Structure formats: structure tokens, C-alpha cells
Amino acid sequence: MSKARPWRLWLAVGFVFMVLLIIVYWDNVGTAHFYLHVAISRPHPPGPLPTPSPGPGKEPPDSRDAVLKRLFGPGTEPGDLPSRKPEPRPAAPGSNAEESVRGYDWSPHAAAQQPAAAAGERQARRRSVLRDFCANASLAFPSKERSFDDIPSYELNHLIVDDRHGVIYCYVPKVACTNWKRVMIVLSGSPLDAGAPFRDPLAIPHALVHNASVHLTFSKFWRRYGPLSRRLMKLRLRTYTKFLFVRDPFVRLISAFRSKFELENEEFYRRFAVPMLRRYSNHSRPPASAHEAFSAGLRVSFANFIQYLLDPHTEQLGPFNEHWRQVHRLCHPCQIDYDFVGKLETLDQDAAQLLRLLKVDQRLRFPPSYRNRTASSWEEGWFASIPLAWRRQLYQLYEADFVLFGYPKPENLLRD
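Now predict its structure.
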């Protein structure tokens, strides 16, 4: 009998160890990997290309277009899309090249005023669109039906938490996230500037803003709280103010291409441009550095970038980079009920409204406004050389973002 006890003890220890391994695996890997190179809307049949839009006739009562027309009327939201190509603005002294290309307007000016009632109605419409389509069977995409518990921790790394003010921000690259991260640093009071918290968002260096160690994100909760992490995340989601900012999905892609491939970015050149040049431009031995490639006049084309996005092989190697990953994959809007949905197209008004909502507008201003040099009116020019079949496939890939955030389908790019 005494000999059996050590075996039972070892079996018990082994069982506990296996349970802990399963918990860690589940939290970091999740239940499944989802690839987005499939048709998104259920009405679309399977195949490499989406079918053309149905002809004239009555729309189903729960169709996406019917819901959008009921909420917004026949067009998009008033004021959501720029009406003309903005003028270039000078970059601030010392700002990096990417911020210059993005088109920051560093000149001080007051945010456009908007009646509180109108701002509230606009937010109500945006949140209603999200709720309706997350519950609507006419829109289907991978990961839509999973619960918050099914989202692995590494997919929650874009949710920045400020426990001092009870705020959660899901940052979306290419949507003024640099300045919103600056705001979150000021709110949280960390890190310190010469022993004191930063008070001016623009005083925070660009490199510090994008340093992952600076921000507390949901993906770090497991290390901090262990098995209690999910419970504490859900508590914050119930009680904190949650916000995100979005923009037209195709315009965001153009902006990502411009900032990452039209500048000498060594990291993006080696990680992404070199494989694109080899696979889509027949350059078997591209230059080893971005500087050499640019000096030789060799750059990735926008068509190469679209080929890369549409290639199923791309996500077999790993998820999309955050700069062109779909917003619903970054921020999980069908699992998280956001209190505020801002748009880059109405940034000035939305930023002012959000800071009032957070009750910090008297001591904090959003940094000088982002002037959207990559305007929606540029889409036709950028996509002119992209084959129609590719455009339709690309829309399928980003359709959920168009629909969930109330952006009109770019019919002019998708019809013969």
C-alpha cells in the first residue's frame, strides 16, 4: 500500500501539470485559426470570384443594403467622406518621414463644432449598424459567431487599457492611431517624462508611442493575472468606455501601401517587399536593402500589393500584418460592444465628442488634426490598373469592414 502512494502522487501532479498546459495553450492559441480568403456574404456562392449583384427587384427585408438604406438613406452618412483632394500640409520639424507622407496638419486650429444632439444621433446610427449586422444572418465571415472566450490572447493585443479613467481603446493602424496612443499615454500617466507624467501628447516621441511595452493591453493580462485574466477582461468590458476609430477600407489599404512601400522602410522591405518582388515581379534576386532597391528604381507596385493580399498562400504563412488586417479581426466588434465608433473622415468632430464623453476635454486636446491626404476620391486612380476580378475579390476580403462600419460598397470599382 505504501508503494502505491508515490505513484498516485505523481499521477496527481502530472494531471495538474497537464491541466495547466491546456489552459496556457487555450489562452494563447485559441480554438481555431481563421483565414479570410473565402466568400464573406452568404448569398455569394463559393468560387474564386463573387457573383455580380442581383438585378433590379425587391431586396430581402434583412439584406445588408436594405438595412443601410433604412439607417442612412440611399447614400452614406453625411460628412463621412471627403469631397475633394486635400492640399498637402507641411510636416512638423523632427517628425518622421512616414508621418509626413501620411499628411499630418501640425498647425493649431479649433475642432469643428457640432450640436450635441446631432453628434449623439450619428453615434447611435453607427452603433446600430454594428449591432444589426453582427446579429444579421445576411452577413457572414469567419470568427463572427465565436464568443469572447474563444478569442486567443494574442488576438487581443490591440485593446489598450487605461485603468485610471476606465477606458479601452482598440487601435487600428492607418487610422490616426499614433495620436490616439499618445492620448492614452497621457491618460494613463505612464511612462514618465523626466520623472513626471506626459501632459502634452505631441511631446511623446514617435518611437515611444509604438513601443509595445508602454501600453497595457488585454494580451498581457495572462502574465499579470493568470487564470483570472478572462474574468477581469470581461469586468472591464462591462464597465469601461470602449472606443475605436475606422476609415474606408480601400482608402486604408492605399494609405498602408503609401507609407510602407513608397518610403525606404527597411523592415517592411525585407519582410514583405522582397517576397512580393520575387513572387509577382519576376525578380529572383532583389536587392538586399530598401536603399539599394530605391536607388535602382525598383519598388513594389500597388498591383503587387493587391496580388499579395489576394494570394491564399499569404495567410497560410501567418495572419495579415496589422497595417492591412481587417478591422473586425483587430477589434472584434461582434464580441465587444463598443461605446464609441469614430471615423477618420470626421476625426475633428469625433475626437472632440469623445474627449467630452471621457470628461477629459478641459485638460486634454487631441493633437493637431490628421489631414487625410489619401482621400476617397483617389480610389479610381489607384485601382485603375487593377483588374476587375481582383477588385471584386478584394472587396470580398474586406466586405465585413465595409458593412459593419457603414461604408458604401464602391460600385464604381466593382462593375464592368
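Residues 23-65, 67-95, 101-111 have pLDDT under 50 and may be disordered.
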